Amino acid sequence: MDAIAISSLTLNIFLGLLILMYIFRIIMTWYPQIPLKQFPYSLIAIPTEPLLFVLRKLIPPIGGIDISPVIGVGIFSLLREMLLGQQGILTMMQ
């Protein structure tokens, strides 16, 4: 395996995990009583909060519904597709 293939695989796994964490974060918004600072939930809340904080500043909750995790999934899905998709930048370099 060359360096581009290894970096593509690593980036694919990393972006896939981020997308999965944001999907879990969407589910966690359905239950507002979840303590985000306690152990199992903090594994999802801590890595996702920096981007969500910025997104909430740009797009405040609409009618009490926080759509920032959905936008986070969209951002990382788009990034993954642009870099690693069938016509992605890293895919075309291989």
TrEMBL record:
Gene Ontology cellular-component terms listed = membrane
UniProt entry keywords in alphabetical sequence: Membrane, Transmembrane, Transmembrane helix
- Any Pfam family from its record, for instance, is CCB3_YggT
What residue ranges are annotated as transmembrane?
12-31, 58-79
**InterPro entries from the UniProt entry:** CCB3/YggT
Q: Which family does it belong to?
A: Belongs to the YggT family.
Question: What name appears for this protein in its UniProt entry?
Answer: YggT family protein
This protein's species is: Pseudanabaena biceps PCC 7429
